[in-house]
């Protein structure tokens, strides 16, 4: 049984009243364990075997401990029992018959090194031996000459160096003694260096291991080593304070769904841990982390254009404008002269002819339109128009490059330019992915607004007109009237490639497709052949091109799942949207603890063996679907306006947001719901005039009786669609609490709360394929899909309205009980449920 303990949020309490984030579970020997700062990292596994990096330098691999008790030598990994993860550190509890040791690993946020403490409690004398394999080398693709290791008696540490004396590392302890160095002779060899940390007699004692690295030679590495040693008592607490401050200055949530609450907070932490300070290149966002083994590639721990851009949307949404700006600024500095935005920037890019001799920097086409879109999102939400002025040349060159890629239809193309999303496999070759063409169209809309912000009105109007025309053309070109969905791509003959893909939800994220056509596409994507219990496959598992192990033709990516969730929420498809949101969120406590993996199998709930278990944009795809999707949160700094369009589960009776920045003000918002009211209280912690547009989703059969702000009537609109309706009100906010109350009658809703299956399992959860109401709004029809013979439940809000149900039953507790028809094992079958209302 896996135990995950949360000591972070109790619904209804504020973060200030809660303990700092901490997750605990029984050791999983196979799971990745990263401990990272902005300048260094330890990558390893929950059993306690690690490699060390001080960017862009790998120091060693296979650090492990042995406990010597009497005449026994006990490998520490065999005694690993419990893992506790905090943002700044991780602790492994190791337990023997007569002792226990708590190994705590910390990489201080802004230091080129790491600290490991060993809290020993023993009934008899215990000696700890630390051993590692020196592996001094630069991150791929740069290389070093021969390296050496020597013992420095003054430092009580091993010095790892190389002949130019430019790159160096220390690993040691103030109590270290009896060093054994790696050696190689004609007759025998050993790759390991080892040292003893000193005997602990019966009782308690703390031993330390200190790791430092430098790109400025052994002297600097020694200085860092001494600094880490002298400041060891404060560095971990300072790192904890850094992350605590980060949670306090970005948007904090109180949610009734404890698992979602937990995931949101850890996703914010996991995302900011992608920020890396490289001494040769500067500070930017890397893509993700994994062990490098004997190689030079620690997952995707180098800088990516499109990863940074997709992640920036989450950073903007949560109010971390500083990191978003840093990431976009970093990427723009390496823009090609013709305007193309880079795809990859190795951490050793300055040490090799990276941008001229390697194909990777310019491999993708999508980083260029995404740069324009991300810059606009940042500018709109932060109000930082000066940054737009500073980057206008970069933006304009990016647009000129984008135009140079247009085909005869005026769409940004991939063939001969760079991949869009799909990098290889049987889905290629194509001329234009809908994904890439859609980004190209949205880039016109984004640049039009950016031009307006910097008073380039003629350019703004020209691009606005081009956007309107291109948007209509995009819909016409990629909609398949035969298949009733948007196509994956156009081939070189301008014919649609009618393979249905989750990639079609990216244009939906930006609201580009026609409403009815998007709705039909989402209905198909909601089926089990596309939507697994752990996220969205790239294509249907019924496709002839599908392979569940196919990186770009079958796998499940949290990135795809996040795209789908935001797009589905935008088009009011809250059932599949919430299912996808929770699928992503739950990964944070069911893989690398507190982190979100890069890619999973399309067939079974299992992360790929080659996946980066701490992938930054996967964490971002918890944040964006919650804030942009479920809450419909949008900040417009120029208008001093906050927009909130929540599609929260029907049985949520409350939620709260704090630290929401709108211009110079910071807002706290508190939502409450009863059977006949929806209320929002807004408190301003700043000055200035601003407004809130609040448009909560209610049932299509609900009636709005009145809307009041602080007890006075307020004008409102009711905007219906096929799946719900929204009460639109505009709140002018003044100082002090501002309470809006919407009185309703006959509101109704159903909630499906999905869970991840056991590891290695196939999907087993219920799918809501579609929901539709009759004209009189007294009948709701659900098209469902689930495993044959299974029984499912949906929570019912206001069940007293229901007069009868077909295809299911309504319990006295207000639960819709749904039995599925019998079918062969694991097979999914369809079921229609019709809910009738008494009035």
Percent in helix: 25-40%
Q: From the helix content, strand content and strand pairing, which structural class follows? A: alpha+beta
Q: Quaternary arrangement of the chains shown?
A: single chain
Enumerate how many helices there are, as a single number: 16
Mean pLDDT: 95
Q: State the shape.
A: globular
Quick one: how many beta strands?
Answer: 54
Structure, explained:
The structure is a single chain. The two termini are 48 Å apart. The radius of gyration is 28 Å and the shape is globular. A 10-stranded antiparallel beta sheet has the order 1-2-8-9-10-11-20-15-14-13. Strands 3, 4, 5, 6, 7, 12, 16 and 19 form an 8-stranded antiparallel beta sheet that branches. The chain is 25% helix and 33% strand. With 839 residues, it is α+β, with helices and mostly antiparallel strands. It has 16 helices and 54 strands.
Provide a short characterization of the protein structure.
By secondary structure, this protein is α+β, with helices and mostly antiparallel strands. Helix content is 25%, strand content 33%.
Question: Strands, helices and their partners?
Answer:
Layout: E1 5-6, E2 23-26, E3 32-36, E4 40-45, E5 50-54, E6 57-69, E7 72-75, E8 80-86, E9 89-95, E10 99-106, E11 113-122, E12 126-138, E13 147-152, E14 157-162, E15 168-172, E16 177-180, E17 183-184, E18 189-190, E19 193-200, E20 203-214, H1 218-230, H2 232-249, E21 252-254, H3 258-272, E22 275-278, E23 282-285, E24 288-289, E25 303-304, H4 305-318, H5 321-332, E26 344-345, H6 354-357, H7 367-382, H8 385-390, H9 392-404, E27 432-433, H10 434-453, H11 457-478, E28 479-480, E29 485-486, E30 489-490, E31 496-497, H12 505-509, H13 515-525, E32 531-532, E33 535-536, H14 558-570, H15 574-586, E34 614-615, H16 616-630, E35 634-636, E36 641-644, E37 654-662, E38 665-673, E39 677-684, E40 690-694, E41 697-698, E42 703-709, E43 712-713, E44 717-720, E45 725-733, E46 738-745, E47 749-751, E48 767-773, E49 779-787, E50 791-797, E51 802-806, E52 809-810, E53 815-819, E54 828-837
Parallel strand pairs: 36-40
Antiparallel strand pairs: 1-2, 2-8, 3-4, 4-5, 5-6, 6-7, 6-12, 8-9, 9-10, 10-11, 11-20, 12-19, 13-14, 14-15, 15-20, 16-19, 17-18, 21-37, 22-23, 24-34, 25-26, 27-30, 28-29, 30-31, 32-33, 35-36, 37-38, 38-39, 39-46, 40-45, 41-45, 42-43, 42-46, 44-45, 47-50, 48-49, 49-54, 50-53, 51-54, 52-53
């Amino acid at each position: 049984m896996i135990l995950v303990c949360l000591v972070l949020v109790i619904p209804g309490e504020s973060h200030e009243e809660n303990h700092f984030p901490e997750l605990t579970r029984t050791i999983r020997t196979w799971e990745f364990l990263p401990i990272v700062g902005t300048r260094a990292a330890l990558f390893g596994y929950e059993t306690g075997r690690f490699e060390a990096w001080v960017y862009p330098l790998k120091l060693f691999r296979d650090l492990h401990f042995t406990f010597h008790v009497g005449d026994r030598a006990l490998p520490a990994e065999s005694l690993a029992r419990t893992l506790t993860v905090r943002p700044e550190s991780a602790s492994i509890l190791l337990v023997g018959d007569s002792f226990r040791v708590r190994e705590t690993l910390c990489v201080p946020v802004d230091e080129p090194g790491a600290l490991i403490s060993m809290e020993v409690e023993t009934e008899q004398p215990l000696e700890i031996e630390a051993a590692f394999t020196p592996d001094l080398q630069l991150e791929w693709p740069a290389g070093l000459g021969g390296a050496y290791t020597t013992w420095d008696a003054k430092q009580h540490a091993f010095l790892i160096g190389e002949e130019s004396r430019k790159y160096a590392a220390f690993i040691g302890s103030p109590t270290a003694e009896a060093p054994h160095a790696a050696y190689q002779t004609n007759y025998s060899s050993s790759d390991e260096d080892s040292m003893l940390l000193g005997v602990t007699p019966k009782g308690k004692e703390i031993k330390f291991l200190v790791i430092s690295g430098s790109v400025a030679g052994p002297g600097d590495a020694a200085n860092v080593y001494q600094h880490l040693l002298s400041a060891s008592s404060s560095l971990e607490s300072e790192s904890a304070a850094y992350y605590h401050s980060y949670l306090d200055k970005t948007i904090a949530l109180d949610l009734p769904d404890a698992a979602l609450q937990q995931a949101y907070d850890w996703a914010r932490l996991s995302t900011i841990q992608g920020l890396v300070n490289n001494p040769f290149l500067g500070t930017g966002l890397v893509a993700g982390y994994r062990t490098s083994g004997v190689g030079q590639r620690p997952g995707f721990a180098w800088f990516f254009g499109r990863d940074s851009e997709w992640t920036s949307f989450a950073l903007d949404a949560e109010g971390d404008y500083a990191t978003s700006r840093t990431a976009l600024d970093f990427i723009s500095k390496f823009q090609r002269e013709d305007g193309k935005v880079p795809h990859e920037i190795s951490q050793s890019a300055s040490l090799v002819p990276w941008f001229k001799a390697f194909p990777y920097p310019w491999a993708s086409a999508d980083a260029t339109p995404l740069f324009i879109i991300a810059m606009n999102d940042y500018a709109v939400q932060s109000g930082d128009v000066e940054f737009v002025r500073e980057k206008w040349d970069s933006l304009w060159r990016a647009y000129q490059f984008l135009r140079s890629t247009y085909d005869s239809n005026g769409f940004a193309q991939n063939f001969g330019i760079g991949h869009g999303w799909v990098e290889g496999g049987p889905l290629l070759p194509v001329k234009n992915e809908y994904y890439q063409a859609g980004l190209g169209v949205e880039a016109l809309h984004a640049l039009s607004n950016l031009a307006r912000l910097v008073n380039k009105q003629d350019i703004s109007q020209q691009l606005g007109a081009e956007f309107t025309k291109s948007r209509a053309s995009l819909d016409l070109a990629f909609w398949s009237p035969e298949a009733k969905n948007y196509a994956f791509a156009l081939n070189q003959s301008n014919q649609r490639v009618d393979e249905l893909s989750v990639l079609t939800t990216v244009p939906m994220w930006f609201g580009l497709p026609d409403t009815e056509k998007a709705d039909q596409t989402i209905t198909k994507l909601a089926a089990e052949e596309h939507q697994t219990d752990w996220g969205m496959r790239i294509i249907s598992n019924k496709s002839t091109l599908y392979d569940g192990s196919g990186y770009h033709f079958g796998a499940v990516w949290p990135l795809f799942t996040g795209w789908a969730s935001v797009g589905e929420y935008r088009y009011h498809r809250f059932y599949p949207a919430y299912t996808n949101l929770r699928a992503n969120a739950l990964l944070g406590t069911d893989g690398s603890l507190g982190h979100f993996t890069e890619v999973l199998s399309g067939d079974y709930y299992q992360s790929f063996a080659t996946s980066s278990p701490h992938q930054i944009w996967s964490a971002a795809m918890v944040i964006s679907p919650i804030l942009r999707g479920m809450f419909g949160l949008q900040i417009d700094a120029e208008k001093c306006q906050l927009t909130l369009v929540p599609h929260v589960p029907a049985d949520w009776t409350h939620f709260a947001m704090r630290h929401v920045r709108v211009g110079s003000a910071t807002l706290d918002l508190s939502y409450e719901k009863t059977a006949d009211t929806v209320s929002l209280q807004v408190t301003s912690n700043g000055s200035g005039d601003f407004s809130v547009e609040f448009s909560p989703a209610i049932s299509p059969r609900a009636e709005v009786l009145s809307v009041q702000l602080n007890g006075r009537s307020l004008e409102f609109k009711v905007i219906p669609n096929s799946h719900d309706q929204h009460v639109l009100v505009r709140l002018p906010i003044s100082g002090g609490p501002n309470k809006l109350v919407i009185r309703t009658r006959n509101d109704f809703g159903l909630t499906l709360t999905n869970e991840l299956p056991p590891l290695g399992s196939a999907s087993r959860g219920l799918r809501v394929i579609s929901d539709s109401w009759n004209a009189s709004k007294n009948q709701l029809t659900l098209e469902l899909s689930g495993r044959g013979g299974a029984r499912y439940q949906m929570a019912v809000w206001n069940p007293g309205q229901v007069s009868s149900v077909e295809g299911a039953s309504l319990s006295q507790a207000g639960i819709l009980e749904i039995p599925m028809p019998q079918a062969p094992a694991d097979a999914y079958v369809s079921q229609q449920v019709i809910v009738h209302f008494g009035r």
